[in-house]
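Narrative of activities, Objective 1.

The group set out to show that a structural description can be obtained from nothing but a protein's sequence at a throughput compatible with the screening campaign. Below is one input-output pair from the validation batch, recorded exactly as produced.
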Amino acid sequence: MPRRPDDSYVVQPVEKALLVLAYVAECGHVVSLKAVSSSLGIPKTTAFRYLQTLTRAGFLAHDGVTDRYSGGPRLGAIARINARINDARELARPLMRDLTAEYDGTVNLAVKGDGTVVYLEVLAPPGCFRTKARSGDAHPLHSTALGKAILAFMPAAESLSYLSRPLTERTGRTLIDRAELARQLRLVARRGYALEAGENEDGAMCVGVPILDEGGYPLVALSVTLPLQRLSPSHAMKAGNRLADAARQISARLAPAGGLAAMAAALAGSAGH
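Output recorded for this entry:
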């Protein structure tokens, strides 16, 4: 088989291990070592090593009595998180369309990456104010209202861990003073929305809010971005309250009955974050 131009970057054992993981996950039931080996054309000893490694990492589970493999707790957690994110996207889409018409600006939905926000959707109909961000782009947590909304509702240890990293400047207005950022995040947690003026993109102002899962964790964040000159402090406050109310409604719809108390506690307790 001819090598593709990017084959030199592929770590083949990792690729094969992921094929094993995908096979077990897609079977939807417990599978044996023999089935994995024969279905994927991998020697049994090699397949056994991959299965044991994935089990140790929590992605698979091994039943010692039946000697069969199935999806593990980490794989289940990833699937649940992905399902919750998709649920949040579906619930947020009608609101995003309403917000673009209401504010004539760019509306964004993003999820936390590794020290970044990753834009899931960027809605900007023709003729409205449009930012440079596109779906799939990643921007620093600390320079965006989306990211600040997420940081403010993270567990304190996770938020502090991020603030201990080097903080890069996106523009000349990006806030990189850790003490001031921490103070700002406490304010965000109290009022329920984050503001950012020209910190991520020159000339743009953004209002962002978190959408929480049933445990009170910021699953995704929603924002509206407008030109700086169009968003006065009073208008920004009104927009923030508008978005925060909508985000709470979406969060409530995401949370099962047993999770509402945890989510409410997170909203109330984050004020002391």
